[in-house]
Amino acid sequence: MVNIFIVVVVLVAFFYFAQKYLLKQENTAEYQYRKKGPLLNMSEGAFYNALVAAVGGHGVILSKVAMGTVLVPHKTKNKKEWFIANNQIAKSYFDYVVCDARTLEPRVIIELDNGRELDKGKIDRQKLIMQVCKSAGLPLIGANIKYSYQVGKLRRLLAAHIDLIESDKEVRFCKRCGSPMVVKVATQGEFKGRRFFTCSRQPHCTYTENYNVVFDDEEIDS
């Protein structure tokens, strides 16, 4: 037992010495580097450009964002649980994060389906993304690569989470009684936090309409 303890002490001392003295003497100027190329491949870049067109000035789009930049473990019982929870997200990332244009607070997570066959690593990553987004209350949108050419559909998907509708440019009227409609936010239920249009004559008229119906002059989808 004493011999094992001595060996452990010697090893710890060796690694401490190596880290403090030997590694610091390395001259990093001796190493050469090169650019890896574009941050996004062709299909990822096309989808990114479609997102920019859909969001406009209402949000900021970041790509390949490390999960640890967006999330932090919450309600862990002790430091061990915190490190385990943090380790789960440490090596993973989000495809795209749409942030508030002013505060850069994450508003929507978007995962791009590139059409490739699912392998175990991709399935595990998707399960992790679904779990952490649900836990953190972050909306998650799964988008197909075809949306790179359907900006109008992207706008409709995003409008429930980002204020793409400008009240001074679009006025809606109740289809039941003709009164002006107002925007409200759901305070409970499955769609808590989502915006929707409701008749200004409530409770006399209870007509409501999805907020994420965005009329795009450039593209009308059937």
UniProtKB/TrEMBL annotation:
Keywords, comma-separated and alphabetical: Membrane, Transmembrane, Transmembrane helix
Note the InterPro entries from the entry.
Answer: DUF2726, UCP028063_topo_Znf
Q: Which residues form the DUF2726 domain?
A: 38-158
- Source superkingdom: Bacteria
Segments passing through the bilayer: 48-72
A Pfam family annotated for this UniProt entry = DUF2726
Q: Which residues form a coiled coil?
A: none
| Protein name as catalogued | DUF2726 domain-containing protein
